[in-house]
Amino acid sequence: MSIRTVLFDLDGTLADTAPDLGFALNEVLSRHGRESLPQSEIRPVVSHGSIGLIKLGFGLVPEDEGFALVRDELLAIYAENLANETRLFPGMEQVLADLEQSGRNWGVVTNKPAWLTEPLLERLGLSQRAACIVSGDTLPRRKPHPDPVLLACERAGSAPHQCVYVGDAERDVQAGHNAKMHTLVALFGYISREDQPQSWGASALISRPEEIIVWVEHNS
Predict the structure, then answer these.
(1) How far apart are CA 63 and CA 86, in angstroms?
(2) Using CA atoms, how far apart are residues 165 and 177, in angstroms rounded to an integer?
(3) Predicted confidence (pLDDT) per residue in 117-133, tens digit
(4) How many angstroms separate the CA atoms of 83 and 204, rounded?
(5) Which of 102, 78, 94 is nearest to 26 (CA)?
(6) What torsion do the CA atoms of 34, 111, 204, 6 make, to the nearest 10 degrees?
(7) Is it true that domain 5-16+86-218 has CATH number 3.40.50.1000?
(8) How many whole angstroms from its chain centre is CA 75?
(9) How many helices (H) and strands (E) does the chain have?
């Protein structure tokens, strides 16, 4: 079996977390006397985490005064609303089941910190099923550095060439390339109008979760 392990980014690939993150951002905006933003504006930046959301809502970057305060507010609200509306993308549950039934395993590699990642996966009923969970603060270096995906391979019991990493951001593809593994771009995720996924050099672009199984079977 040449592909033994499928690794997933979390936000925008495995799960649709945009509704709850959008709620948290709009709640912070309201507290600061600002207008709420429509989900259509928030959704494309969710893969960039709290930094992207705060830049969108407040025009602040990490070096700016006031950024840390707003970020703390955002994450505190989000932590209380982790899984109100967050769900696996349609078709993803069947993908996970098919991987398990075929004797393969799967895991999660995300830049989301563990104190948010782990309770979210628990709420989604995935913690005990995942062969590995590597969060943004598991190691000193995050994606696009290869360390997180390499650690995930090791914990899943697979060599890098036996793994494929599925994500919706260029750094996901870069992390996979840096680790010498296959990569798939989830076009159903949080792709912005400025993104050019066809130029990222992934093994394939997929429009629906079900295409992951097709690709894995074709390349095994």
Answers:
(1) 30
(2) 9
(3) 999 999 999 999 999 99
(4) 30
(5) 78
(6) -130
(7) yes
(8) 16
(9) 9, 8
Identify whether 147 is a catalytic site residue.
Answer: no
3-state SS assignment for residue 177: helix
Take residue 205 and report the two structure tokens written for it: 């672009």
Element holding 133 (H helix, E strand) = strand 132-134
Give the number of other Cβ atoms within 10 Å of residue 122's Cβ. Answer: 13
Query: Residue 144, preceding bond cis, omega within 30 degrees?
Result: yes
Q: Which of 9, 16, 20, 172 is catalytic?
A: 9
The answer to whether the predicted template modeling score (pTM) of the entire model surpasses 0.85 is: yes
In contact, 141 and 147? CB cutoff 8 Å: yes
Q: Which amino acid is at 165?
A: Y
Confidence label for 220 from pLDDT (cuts 50, 70 and 90): confident
Exposure letters 186-217 (e unless 16+ CB within 10 A, then b) = bebbbbeeebebeebebbbebeebebbbebbe
Q: What is the largest CA-CA distance in the chain?
A: 56
What angle, rounded to 10 degrees, do the helices at 67-80 and 114-123 form? 20
What distance, in Å, lies between the first and last C-alpha atoms of the chain?
Answer: 6
